[in-house]
Amino acid sequence: MADVPQQLPRTLWIGILLLLVVLCLAYALSLMELHRAYQRALPVLNPVADFTLMNQDGRPTTLADLSNHVWIADIIFTRCAGPCPVMTAQMKSLQDALPQTGRARLVTLTTDPDFDTPPVMKKYGERFGADFNRWMFLTGSKAEIAGLAGDSLKLSAVPVKPEDRRNDADLFIHSTIYVVVDKHARLRGVFETLGDGVNWTNVHQRPITTESQLEHEK
To answer: In the chain, what are the domain boundaries?
Structure first.
C-alpha cells in the first residue's frame, strides 16, 4: 500500500502525455484537411455582368466598386417577416467573423425596390449592425436587380400573387442562399442558409473558408 501514493502521479503524467499526443494528432489532421481544401480548385459557376444600382447612401454602385474584392451576396426584402431577418442576422455573423481590416465585402440585394429605397435599406442595415464600409445594401430598377440577382448570381425571386398572400408581408418567394464571387467577378460558391436539414452552425464556416481560399487566388 505504501507504493500507491508514488504510482498516482506517474499515472497522471502518463495520462496527460497521452492526451497531448491525441491533441497534437488532431491538430495535425485539421491542418492537413485545411491544406487539402485549399488545394481543391473551386469551380467557376458563372460570370457576373456589370450593373448599376444604388447603395444605402443613394450612391451609384457598379461592378467596378467590387473589383479585386471577394464578396458574399444574398437577396431579401425589408418588409419580409419570414427568412429575411434570419438571413440578415446570419450575414451579420459573417461580418463579425471576417477580418475587420480585410478586403472581403458583403452585398445584400432587395427583391422589393419600389419600397426598399436607399434610406429604407440603410435603416434596415443599421437595425442589424451593418458595417457599411464592408457591407452594402443595393436597390435600383427591377431590371438591373433581375440582371444581377437572377442572371449573374442565380438568386431567384418570384412575386406572390395577391390572392395567394397569407399576410401583408408575404410579397415574394426568394432564394435563401448565399453566393460567393471572386476578385474577377466570377460566381464560385453557393451555400444554403435555411431549410430542412440545414444547420447554420455547421454551414457558417463554409463561406468564410471559401472567401479565404479565393483571397489567395491570383
So the answer is: 1-40, 46-215
Q: What are phi and psi of 76, to 5 degrees?
A: -145, -175
SS (H, E, C) 175-213: CCEEEEECCCCEEEEEEECCCCCCCHHHHCHHHHHHHHH
Listing DSSP states for 104-171 in one string gives: -EEEEEES-TTT--HHHHHHHHHHTT--TTTEEEEB--HHHHIIIIIIIS---EEEPPGGG-SSTT--
Using a 10 angstrom Cβ sphere, with 0-12 exposed, 13-18 middle and 19 or more buried, the burial of residue 86 is: middle
pTM of the entire predicted model: 0.77
pLDDT in tens, 166-193: 655 554 556 788 999 999 999 999 998 8
Strands 135-138, 105-110: parallel, antiparallel or unpaired by DSSP?
parallel
CB-based contact 109:138 (threshold 8 Å): yes
Average pLDDT, the chain: 85
In tens, the pLDDT along 68-108 reads 999 999 999 899 877 899 999 999 999 999 999 999 999 99
Q: Kind and range of the H or E element at 13?
A: helix 4-39
CA distance 172 to 165: 9
Q: Which CATH superfamily is domain 46-215 in?
A: Glutaredoxin (3.40.30.10)
The cell 484537411 sits on which residue?
33
